[in-house]
Amino acid sequence: MKKVGYFFLCFVPLIASVSLQFIVAIPVMGFCIMQICFFALRSGRQMTFTELLRRFSISFSGQNYVMMISILFAVCGILLFGFWYAKQFHGSLHIPAESFSKPALVLGIICLVPGLQLLSSVLTNFFAYLFPQWMDFYVELMDSAGFTGQPSLLLILYAVILGPIEEELTFRGVILSSAKKALPFWAANFFQALLFGVFHMNFIQGIYAFFIGLFLGYICKRGASIWLSIFLHILFNLWGTFASSVTALLSNPLYSILFLLFSVLLGILGMVLFYKNTSPADVKHFPENSDM
After folding, report:
1. CA-to-CA distance for 186 and 182, rounded, in angstroms?
2. Cα separation, 225 vs 202, whole angstroms
């Protein structure tokens, strides 16, 4: 019965994450309405309720407000799930000096990024070809959230730093730790990656997030530290955030083929370096070793 309880506990962080996004939107909505009313009073003109709603709809759907909600959500999520992970599952939030003092291990994780980006691109293009309506929705979603074009400072703060930390603490921290108490690691890792894909709430992003989530779960377990998966997630999002400046160079088919080979070779090198510089014995020093 205890294992069943831990299995159903896996859904609580997902529900809490989705709920938290709606909760943090409330003060941002209030700020948006106050801003509209302030400018209306300053201009000295009366505003009808219909016009207020119209202006609110336009302003609140803007990229700045979307980013404000995302950043506020990420900060609250880091505090909530960081505390949860540390207290219930005894997860260490101290950056492991031993892991990051190994240059070959750090280099291995860096080399994994192009390979993972290639995997996500292949998956995205494949399913975009099969289901173009999925891709249309995904592009529209990215445009409205400000993830296309020149990245802003708010976007970089959320997508490259706060977002990866929050997602790792939630999925590779609380959810994976809970799932491992009810399931063998391979099944627990599959399950947390599935929930990670569902969390993104669109098919295109959800599919490649599932596969990336599987890999991040393996990195966290094999490397015996959630900080290694956080580091890889940050690098992955950093590449994705500035990908538009790279893809412009790949219009030439020759460059595309060379880049593909380069990504595959770097990914293989990264996997070899990571595997050789970690060991199952390292898991003994991981706070959750009894459940692995």
Report:
1. 12
2. 29
CA–centroid distance for 273 within its chain: 24
Give CA separation, 182 vs 9, 174, 179, 226, in Å.
10, 13, 5, 20
Instruction: Per residue of the chain (292 residues), give pLDDT as tens.
Output: 688 888 888 999 999 999 999 999 999 888 888 888 887 777 777 777 787 788 778 777 777 888 889 999 999 999 999 999 999 998 888 888 788 989 999 999 999 999 999 899 899 999 999 999 999 999 888 887 767 667 788 889 999 999 999 999 999 999 999 999 999 999 999 999 999 999 998 999 999 999 999 999 999 999 999 999 999 999 999 998 887 555 555 566 777 788 889 999 999 999 999 999 998 755 554 555 443 3
d(CA 231, CA 216): 10
148-154 contacts at long range (C-beta below 8 A, 24 or more positions apart): 148/244, 149/244, 151/241, 151/242, 152/63, 152/67, 154/64, 154/67, 154/68, 154/71
Taking the CA of residue 178 as centre, how many other CA atoms within 13 Å lie in the half-sphere pointing to its CB? Answer: 26
Which amino acid is residue 201, in one-letter code? M
